[in-house]
Specification:
The protein is globular and about 90 Å long. The chain has about 1000 residues and is of the alpha/beta class. Strand 1 and strand 2 form a beta hairpin. The longest helix has 26 residues.
Length: about 1000
């Protein structure tokens, strides 16, 4: 069976589309699929389907839906037989699926593969994999189920994965070439139209357009986004989007050599609606925009009901792109002339006879369109020749040059469909996604209509068969299609009259010319025999020759005879040259660089393999080496110069994953295990003590754990203020998460659970609850393995609270109960008190306010017995909030006032801000609006001082509520816009609700 959740929820049994029944039944299936095989507790299903008002028969209704789904999924299942598809688990249900059955798992697998490729510095491969992953999407996750169910975090989080993958593809694509750039641009435009206020996404669009040479479109995109933000949110673009605009302006101002062909691009973009998304940066002061123009107008899309902003030029997105019928994309104003050809290979050589043959096939103006098929074996140079020739011809096709990689022969096996290719071609001409028909024949007709009267060149690379290509061939006179394939495509020749050009290996003269072009005539001339042997061992295959040439160029001091000897020693096998080199070949190449290092740099190279995360600072590298930072910098510089490390940004270093694998082998071979273990201890200690220091600066009055004394040469970071500490957490987050996992496996596991405990507040405030669940689960396992009751108590407590944030109430209650028992056993009063506060939070979320007050009463007694004034103050504020929930506003003011007084006495700005915020809400509910705004302003100033972005945004939302209560809609919208900018900057899930409220305000 196949399941789809990336778009409308669908199920196929073999090739048959399964009808999924009533909306609640479809929503139940979507919920189970979204958990990707993990069981979902029955209470969570009830909450998801009915929220806070389930009927008395809710559980029975769920059982009926389960039975109906089982009949749909397993029609041959006999009554009384256990289902293998929709299984009952302890307290809930699960739907086990394999990677190949569920598109969500396939998407995640491809994305992980892309991340691995990126870590190996193979960004082209990373983009290819991300494009495959994004091709699986057919609209918002689980679209078609009831809106209130689809709004659950489990579905919006999946949508967030889509946006994140789009941003990753955009970040990697500048290194990937024209065809991939155009494919990413198509997806990027759609995503940007769905998320018009996601500044990071809009910035990526501006950057990719600029990198692709479309500065005019990049600047127009910025202008449209800026105008929309000013009109709808009352704010200016943040630093990231402004930086993207400056980059585009820089491109336009740099003197450039006139191109050999003209490709005027005047596209802009249409944006539709908004969904989930994140952005970086916060609202800024006004920046003079040199590209200002008229603001866009607003209409309503009849197919989606969402507002649509339109600017002059092309548009690039609708809410879903799945309308079953749409007008043909004719009459597009100010026509675009796409110039998508990848850059020609500078080292191209040979193929004189083939180029002469091809030149004779170019149609002149008014002559019938022609199709040329370049075919041959893998690695023979079909794409290289096609791109080289197409670039030579570009000036003869003034109405556009298009390029599409059809992925006919691809490691994933996911060939591009004709419909997908046509969408990409239509998008290249600026046709709005909403106007692209959904059916292949209609798309082909729209494509032919669009090309009427134009003279274009279309390169269709890596085709699978004739049927894949036929709808993509241009029909108008004077057009040319160049197709490459490993197959002969006889169908195109028989039906379409295509002209075949078959490529074989280079001849001896051309092969030698390739070596000369890459290595220099002197080097080849000095070793003619070795060069001839290399050509023979590579069997004159261009791809193999290129890889061997790269090896030789990497080591100019090595003789070609030595390289020929290595090929000879491998018995002349060329398997390693037909795809990505396997690890054994990479080891040989890397060794040449490694052996040239100084002993200190070589040791650092090996030890960096022990680092937990994807990149590291100079301080972390010093901790690994056990030396001072100033001592390690020269060695880092040496590794960067040898291309064994990459300095992605000043002071941060990363390495290709294959280099890390090689370094790991070297550690095992050359380093004493005790030295390696000591290096790991130092670097984990570095991150643990640095994080502890940062947390103490951000929340100095919060209870902390006691750490062991740092090992010598741990070199923890110090932080002068909250901003520096918060920036460090943001910068090191991925490394810290990996360090928790590694620390849990290292030694007694203490550094793992302790680091997880230190990270709890940071992850919670930033809404990173899934990551919290992951590391706290690892922390519990590490503490249990080490028999550490305190570690188990902290892990269970944080894990329980994270699960409550995720709405997994049954698991949350279980972990909080365990934590409470462990803290009681340990006699840890403060630990018990915080668990009780977490249990009160859960009770309030369930509307059990009396239970919450009882938990707070117990926590208050514990804090008083421990003499912990800040704990008492926090409880008073939380009791005040509970009174607010009960509608007891005067009592809420009393409790929050007590909290405020204590926090002022102890000098806790975080707690004082929280108390002011609660007092503001209470005053607003009592109708004292001016008093409420004064309280909120006090809270806001304090949150900004301590740099608590999430609670700053939370207070801004409360200010907006007060403006609305006073009838000031404009002020409310501006304040909500500020809150949204903050929440999107930190990637917080609360951004969805704020965005919806902004949309409601118009």
């Amino acid at each position: 069976m196949r399941f789809q959740i990336l778009g409308p929820v669908r199920v196929w049994r073999d090739t048959a589309d399964v009808k999924l029944g009533a909306p609640k039944q479809r929503a139940l299936l979507a919920l189970l699929l979204a958990h990707a095989g993990q069981p979902v507790p029955l209470p969570a299903i009830v909450d998801a389907l009915w929220h806070e008002d389930p009927p008395a028969t809710a559980v029975n209704v769920i059982h009926r839906h389960v039975a109906a789904l089982r009949r749909l999924l397993e029609p041959d299942l006999h009554t009384g037989t256990a289902s293998s598809r929709l299984v009952r688990t302890s307290g809930g249900y699960g739907l086990p699926v394999a990677d190949g059955e569920l598109d969500l798992l396939r998407f995640r697998s491809l994305r992980e593969d892309a991340h691995r490729s990126a870590r190996r510095d193979d960004r082209v491969k990373a983009v290819e994999l991300l494009v495959q992953a994004l091709d699986l999407w057919h609209g918002p996750a689980a679209s078609g189920i009831p809106v209130e169910v689809r709004a659950l975090p489990v579905f919006t989080a999946v949508d967030d994965e889509h946006v994140a993958a789009v941003k990753e593809a955009a970040a990697y694509v500048p290194a990937a070439g024209g065809a991939l750039t155009e494919r990413v641009l198509c997806t990027l435009r759609r995503a940007a139209s769905h998320h018009p206020f996601d500044e990071a996404l809009q910035a990526r669009l501006v950057e990719v357009l600029s990198a692709a040479g479309r500065q005019a479109e990049a600047l127009e995109t910025y202008r449209v986004v800026r105008a929309r933000m000013a009109e709808e949110l009352g704010i200016e673009p943040g630093p990231e989007l402004r930086a993207a605009q400056r980059g585009a302006l820089g491109h336009t101002r740099q003197p450039r050599t006139p191109p050999t062909h003209t490709a005027t691009d005047t596209t802009t973009g249409t944006t539709t609606g908004s969904a989930t998304g994140t952005t970086t940066g916060t609202p800024s002061t006004t920046l003079t925009d040199t590209t200002t123009g008229t603001p866009t107008s607003t209409a309503t899309d009849a197919t989606t009901g969402t507002p649509t902003s339109t600017a002059t030029g092309t548009t690039a997105g609708s809410a879903t792109g799945t309308a079953e019928s749409a007008p043909a994309p004719v009459g597009v104003p100010d026509p675009v002339r796409p110039a998508q050809l990848p850059r020609a290979l500078c080292a191209f050589t040979g193929r004189g006879a083939e180029l002469e043959q091809l030149e004779a096939l170019v149609p002149g103006p008014g002559e019938a369109a022609r199709t040329v098929v370049l075919s041959g074996m893998a690695g023979v140079g079909k794409t290289t020749l096609a791109v080289h020739w197409a670039n030579r011809l570009a000036a003869r096709f003034p109405d556009g040059q298009l390029y599409v990689d059809l992925r006919g022969f691809h490691l994933s096996g996911a060939a591009m469909s004709g419909a997908e290719a046509l969408r990409a071609l239509l998008d290249a001409f600026g046709v709005p996604v909403g106007r692209i028909p959904s059916e292949l024949p209609a798309q082909a007709a729209a494509y032919r209509t669009l090309l009427a009267g134009r003279r274009v060149l279309v390169v269709l690379d890596n085709a699978l068969d004739s049927e894949q290509v036929r709808p993509l061939l241009p029909a108008p006179d004077g057009c040319l299609a160049v197709v490459t394939s490993r197959h002969q495509l006889q169908g195109l020749m028989a039906v379409e009259g295509a002209h075949p050009v078959t490529l074989g290996p280079l001849d001896e003269t051309e092969a030698r010319a390739l070596l000369v072009r890459r290595l220099g005539a002197d080097r080849v001339g000095r070793e003619e025999e070795a060069a001839a042997e290399i050509i023979g061992l590579c069997e004159r295959l261009p791809l193999a020759l290129a890889i061997v040439s790269a090896r030789a160029a990497l080591n100019p001091g090595y003789r070609l005879a030595a390289i020929a000897g290595e090929l000879r020693a491998s018995h002349g096998s060329l398997d390693a040259f037909t795809g990505e080199p396997p690890l054994a070949d990479a080891r040989c190449v890397f060794s040449w660089s490694y052996q040239a290092l100084s002993s200190e740099a070589a040791r650092l190279f090996r030890l960096l393999a022990l680092h937990p995360g994807p990149d590291c600072s100079a301080a972390a590298a010093a901790a690994l080496s056990g030396v001072r930072v100033r001592q390690v910098r020269p060695h880092l510089t040496e590794l960067v110069r040898a291309h064994l490390l990459f300095e992605n940004e000043p002071g941060r270093f990363s390495s290709h994953s294959l280099l890390r694998a090689y370094a790991t082998e070297l550690v095992e071979e050359f380093d004493d295990p005790r030295d390696a273990d000591a290096a790991v201890t130092r670097v984990l200690g570095h991150y643990l003590h640095s994080a502890h220091n940062a947390s103490a600066v951000l929340a100095p009055h919060r209870e902390t754990i006691d750490l062991r004394r740092a090992a010598p040469h741990t070199l923890p970071e110090r932080f002068p203020d909250q901003r520096t500490a918060a920036d460090w957490f943001d910068r090191e987050r991925s490394v810290l998460l990996a360090a928790v996992e590694q620390g849990g496996r290292h030694g007694d596991g203490a550094s793992g659970w302790q680091l997880a405990a230190v990270l709890e507040l940071y992850l919670d405030r930033n809404g990173r609850w899934q990551q919290q669940r992951t590391i706290q689960t690892a922390a519990v396992a590490a503490a249990r393995r080490g028999g550490d009751l305190l570690g188990q108590a902290h892990g269970h407590r944080a894990l329980g609270f994270a699960l409550s944030r995720l709405g997994q109430w049954e698991g949350a209650d279980e972990h909080l109960r365990r934590a409470l028992g462990l803290f009681e056993e340990l006699g840890d009063t403060r630990g018990r008190a915080r668990v009780l506060r977490y249990r009160a939070f859960v009770a309030n979320r369930h509307g059990q306010h009396a239970d919450a007050l009882e938990h707070y009463r117990s926590a208050l007694e514990l804090y008083r017995s421990a003499g912990h004034l800040n704990g008492e103050a926090a409880v008073h504020n939380e009791v005040g909030w509970t009174r607010l929930l009960l509608g007891e506003y005067d009592r809420a003011v009393e409790e929050c006032g007590r909290s405020l007084a204590i926090h002022r006495e102890t000098g806790d700005p975080n707690g004082e801000a929280a108390a002011w915020d609660s007092l503001g809400v209470a005053s607003q509910r009592l109708g004292h609006l001016d008093r409420a705004l004064d309280a909120f302003r006090n809270a806001l100033a304090l949150y900004r001082k301590v740099r608590d972005s999430y609670l700053e945004a939370d207070t801004l939302v409360h200010i907006a509520d007060t403006h609305l209560a006073a009838g000031r809609t404009g002020g409310a919208a501006r304040t909500l816009g500020q809150a949204l900018g903050i929440l999107e900057a930190i990637g917080h899930p609360d951004a969805d609700g704020v965005r919806d409220r902004l949309r409601e305000l118009g």
